[in-house]
Amino acid sequence: EHMFMATLHQADPRVRLRLVGYCSLRRDWKRIEELAGKCDFISVVGGDHPVPHEVIEGYIQASDAGIISYADSIVTRERMPTKLYEYLAFQLPILLSGNPKWKAKCDQSNAAILFDSNSDTSYILAALQKNEFYQTEPRQVLWSDTVRSLQKVVR
């Protein structure tokens, strides 16, 4: 993501990457800390310590877009990241790596732009500016939605 974000930042200096939350793996935190130190467009809130969920939600609401990108692995392939649901709940446009399961969830609301390291930055920046996301209200993104669905099954 760093190289992709660096390319976006070069194309439009207003682009910033703010990483919010706790990084539990020390080696990953050290890498993030090093990148943030070298790149003035990257900032970190938390990192080596947990961040209250209300604070995370505040940053989501104040953002223009969110990014969801994980290396493809057995661990991530079949999982749905919590932040996917959070971004959908707040109707935050999403820059999304190519996981088919995540894409299918986002396609329901036209919530995301797919990207990889070779993506056309001018296309992505134009799509973000055009802001034609969320033509349909996201469904089944809040815990309350899940509880209602479970209650119907249990009854």
In short:
The protein is an alpha/beta fold. The protein has helices at residues 2-11, 26-38, 53-62, 74-77, 82-89, 100-107, 121-130, 143-154, and strands at residues 17-22, 42-47, 66-68, 94-96, 112-114. The protein has eight helices and five strands.
Spatial ordering of strands, largest sheet: 3-4-5
The SSE order reads HEHEHEHHEHEHH
Shape: globular
Strand runs, count? 5
Helix content: 40-55%
Span between termini: 45 Å
Radius of gyration: 16 Å
Tally of individual helices: 8
Please provide a written account of the structure.
- It is built from eight helices and five strands; from the N terminus they run H-E-H-E-H-E-H-H-E-H-E-H-H.
- The protein has helices at 2-11, 26-38, 53-62, 74-77, 82-89, 100-107, 121-130, 143-154; strands at residues 17-22, 42-47, 66-68, 94-96, 112-114.
- The strands form two sheets. The chain has a three-stranded parallel sheet with strand order 3-4-5, with helices on one face. The protein has a two-stranded parallel ribbon with strand order 1-2.
Which helices and strands, and how do they pair?
Blueprint: H1 2-11, E1 17-22, H2 26-38, E2 42-47, H3 53-62, E3 66-68, H4 74-77, H5 82-89, E4 94-96, H6 100-107, E5 112-114, H7 121-130, H8 143-154
Parallel strand pairs: 1-2, 3-4, 4-5
Keywords, please?
155 residues, 5 strands, two-stranded parallel sheet, three-stranded parallel β-sheet, globular, alpha/beta
